[in-house]
């Protein structure tokens, strides 16, 4: 797998440091509240686990699975809800945990969905933000790193369900997906 990576953008140590920083910030911001933390599957699962371990607040955890890439390297523009929440978001402080914000379409879909379901407040924490890929104006409240407009994998992010288990975030060699 490592041979398929053009270069490492963020090492395991870089990720650990930013997760610790974000965990402290979220602890401060959610003090006295009991947020519903929603992990967007599958990509955000590793980041979610690491973040909530560093949040010193009571919280509930749920998962949602949506898809817009459908196996490719670019968003299709169509969002599919593959698996919905078990918890009710009505009157809850919702914290969406994402792996990467690219076009913004998936995030816009989720925020609108939870607002329509009467969430009290909806905030977003993303490991990665790729502003150059944005086609929809969305607000990301907590960001770990900004990434260039390249195809990245690792630490939960995948290409054709592979590379999620890399402990770092790296740029995938174009020769891997330009077959």
Automatic annotation (TrEMBL):
<keyword id="KW-0547">Nucleotide-binding</keyword>
<dbReference type="GO" id="GO:0000287">
    <property type="term" value="F:magnesium ion binding"/>
</dbReference>
<keyword id="KW-0479">Metal-binding</keyword>
<dbReference type="InterPro" id="IPR050408">
    <property type="entry name" value="HGPRT"/>
</dbReference>
<dbReference type="GO" id="GO:0006166">
    <property type="term" value="P:purine ribonucleoside salvage"/>
</dbReference>
<comment type="pathway">
    <text>Purine metabolism; GMP biosynthesis via salvage pathway; GMP from guanine: step 1/1.</text>
</comment>
<keyword id="KW-0963">Cytoplasm</keyword>
<dbReference type="InterPro" id="IPR029057">
    <property type="entry name" value="PRTase-like"/>
</dbReference>
<dbReference type="GO" id="GO:0005829">
    <property type="term" value="C:cytosol"/>
</dbReference>
<dbReference type="GO" id="GO:0006178">
    <property type="term" value="P:guanine salvage"/>
</dbReference>
<dbReference type="Pfam" id="PF00156">
    <property type="entry name" value="Pribosyltran"/>
</dbReference>
<dbReference type="GO" id="GO:0046100">
    <property type="term" value="P:hypoxanthine metabolic process"/>
</dbReference>
<dbReference type="GO" id="GO:0032263">
    <property type="term" value="P:GMP salvage"/>
</dbReference>
<dbReference type="InterPro" id="IPR000836">
    <property type="entry name" value="PRTase_dom"/>
</dbReference>
<feature type="domain" description="Phosphoribosyltransferase">
    <location>
        <begin position="14"/>
        <end position="159"/>
    </location>
</feature>
<keyword id="KW-0660">Purine salvage</keyword>
<keyword id="KW-0808">Transferase</keyword>
<protein>
    <recommendedName>
        <fullName>Hypoxanthine phosphoribosyltransferase</fullName>
        <ecNumber>2.4.2.8</ecNumber>
    </recommendedName>
</protein>
<comment type="pathway">
    <text>Purine metabolism; IMP biosynthesis via salvage pathway; IMP from hypoxanthine: step 1/1.</text>
</comment>
<dbReference type="InterPro" id="IPR005904">
    <property type="entry name" value="Hxn_phspho_trans"/>
</dbReference>
<keyword id="KW-0328">Glycosyltransferase</keyword>
<keyword id="KW-0460">Magnesium</keyword>
<dbReference type="GO" id="GO:0004422">
    <property type="term" value="F:hypoxanthine phosphoribosyltransferase activity"/>
</dbReference>
<dbReference type="GO" id="GO:0000166">
    <property type="term" value="F:nucleotide binding"/>
</dbReference>
<comment type="similarity">
    <text>Belongs to the purine/pyrimidine phosphoribosyltransferase family.</text>
</comment>
<dbReference type="GO" id="GO:0052657">
    <property type="term" value="F:guanine phosphoribosyltransferase activity"/>
</dbReference>
<comment type="function">
    <text>Purine salvage pathway enzyme that catalyzes the transfer of the ribosyl-5-phosphate group from 5-phospho-alpha-D-ribose 1-diphosphate (PRPP) to the N9 position of the 6-oxopurines hypoxanthine and guanine to form the corresponding ribonucleotides IMP (inosine 5'-monophosphate) and GMP (guanosine 5'-monophosphate), with the release of PPi.</text>
</comment>
<dbReference type="GO" id="GO:0032264">
    <property type="term" value="P:IMP salvage"/>
</dbReference>
């Amino acid at each position: 797998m490592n041979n398929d990576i053009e270069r490492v953008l963020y090492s395991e140590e870089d990720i650990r440091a930013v997760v610790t920083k974000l965990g402290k910030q979220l602890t401060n911001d959610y003090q006295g509240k009991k947020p519903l933390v929603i992990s967007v599957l599958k990509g955000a699962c590793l980041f979610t686990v690491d973040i909530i371990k560093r949040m010193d607040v009571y919280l509930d955890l749920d998962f949602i699975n949506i898809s817009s890439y459908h196996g490719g390297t670019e968003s299709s523009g169509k969002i599919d809800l593959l698996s919905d929440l078990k918890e009710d978001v009505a009157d809850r402080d919702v914290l969406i945990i994402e792996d990467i914000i690219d076009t913004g379409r998936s995030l816009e879909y989720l925020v609108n969905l939870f607002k329509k379901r009467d969430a009290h407040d909806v905030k977003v924490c993303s490991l990665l933000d790729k502003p150059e890929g944005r086609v929809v104006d969305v607000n990301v409240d907590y960001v770990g790193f900004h990434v260039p407009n390249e195809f990245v994998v690792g630490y939960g992010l995948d290409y054709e369900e592979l590379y999620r288990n890399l402990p770092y975030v790296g740029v995938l060699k174009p020769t891997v997906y330009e077959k």
